[in-house]
Every structure is written in C-alpha cells, then in structure tokens.
Design a protein that fits this description.
Length: 139
C-alpha cells in the first residue's frame, strides 16, 4: 500500500501533471490519432480524459490555451455506434456537445470525441484525425 501511494505521488508530481479533485491530468502538445494518444496515456498508467461534471469541464478548459489543435477525450462510440462511452470506463453522466453534435458529419464514421480548443465544446470526429490530447490518472 505504501509503495502504491508513493507511485501515485511521483506520477502526480511529475512534470506537467496537474491535480484537480481525485485526479491528475497531463496535457500533451504533440498530435496523435485517438488510438495512439490513448496508448500514450495507458503507457503512463492513465487514460484519455473523461469529464464527469461542468466543474471538471471548466477546469479542463482552463488548460486548453496550451493546445494548438482540438484535444482528444476518452469519449467514443467504437463498441456500439451511437452509444458513447468513456475509455476509462467511467459512466457518461455529463456531456458538453457543440450545437448539432454528435453528427457523423457527411456520413463519415466519427467514433471518437474531441474537445474544440476554442470553445471547449465536444465534437465527434474520425479517430484517425491528429489532435493534442489530455491524459487523466485516478489518484
């Protein structure tokens, strides 16, 4: 148990980890596909960000000024089209879609969800799009 606590402390206090509530977040400025971004987060023992409330959404938005593109979240409907789920298995209790979203624009399969860096609103997008991303770690 002590080792686990120390491990958590090291991860949250590492470079560019930001704490909010019971979670630590790490923004990445490089651009990756959704799957590659998720792999990067998983390699750190984290996952792509899941957002559970407007309070958390607002806190995450405060870091969007660092983004040079839209930002991948863990929300996706890869398993069942039209049923959006968080990659970290949190229940979807809150959404912040942009107007008219999700829409599978022009009939494309848009199974992954990005946060628009100008507004913070969510948009479904092709998982092969290259975006910045945000990892989230449970403390």
């Amino acid at each position: 148990f002590l080792h686990y606590t120390i491990l958590i402390w090291k991860i949250c206090s590492g470079p560019d980890w930001y704490e909010f509530g019971d979670f630590c977040y790490k923004p990445f400025g490089d651009k990756k596909t959704w799957h590659n971004a998720r792999s990067s987060c998983r390699n750190l023992g984290a996952d792509l960000v899941s957002i559970q409330s407007m309070k958390e959404q607002s806190w995450v938005e405060s870091y969007l000024y660092m983004a040079t593109s839209n930002v991948w979240t863990g929300l996706n409907d890869l398993a069942i089209p039209g049923l959006f789920m968080w990659s970290d298995e949190h229940i979807v209790t809150f959404t912040y879609w942009a107007p008219g979203e999700p829409n599978n624009h022009n009939g494309f399969s848009e199974d992954c969800v990005e946060m628009l860096h100008q507004t913070g609103r969510w948009n479904d997008k092709s998982c092969t799009q290259l975006n910045n991303y945000l990892c989230k770690f449970i403390t």
